[in-house]
Amino acid sequence: xxxxxxxxxxxxxxxxxxxxxxxxxxxxxxxxxxxxxxxxxxxxxxxxxxxxxxxxxxxxxxxxxxxxxxxxxxxxxxxxxxxxxxxxxxxxxxxxxxxxxxxxxxxxxxxxxxxxxxxxxxxxxxxxxxxxxxxxxxxxxxxxxxxxxxxxxxxxxxxxxxxxxxxxxxxxxxxxxxxxxxxxxxxxxxxxxxxxxxxxxxxxxxx
Length: 207
Hints:
The protein starts with a helix and ends with a strand. The longest helix is centred in the middle third of the chain and has 15 residues. It has two domains: about 100 residues, 3-Layer(aba) Sandwich (Rossmann fold); about 90 residues, Orthogonal Bundle (Arc Repressor Mutant, subunit A), CATH 1.10.10.10. It is built from eight helices and ten strands. Helix 3 links the parallel strand 1 and strand 2. About 40% of the residues lie in helices and about 20% in strands. By secondary structure, it is of the alpha+beta class.
């Protein structure tokens, strides 16, 4: 049903029906974005995501059962860009797909962004810290870009959801926190640049 709806909505869609095939297809490099259902035969969506993230940064949306918070958090921690709870409307899923694709397509460059030892090249979707490449998922890149563009001031979680994730913040939604935690891990010692402002959001130091 989703394949038929998304095809009518202008997407070119390839559907497979188990996690092993999903991971194999995703790693071929032919796709702009991947949708993974957590509940799949042979290999579930979580393991399929792990396999994909060993070699690819292709954006991934997870489909999870309503109220299954564990799957959502684990998926985000493993590098999923977003999740949609089932049952969902095809229109909502299409909107999420377009929001992520808009943010992952390189646009006209306005030069690198820099703060301290951190440098970002938006037009190339690349990040360097202390001269070394930092590999981020598309969602992590978008979150860090919002923080860098607002370096020196507190960025609210509402701003992160709207500008980086392309949606409104939901009740009990921890997606932004998980993405920031992953960014910090990848930055190592430089993670001290990002400070949590309790109850508000995050502050990235300018220097």
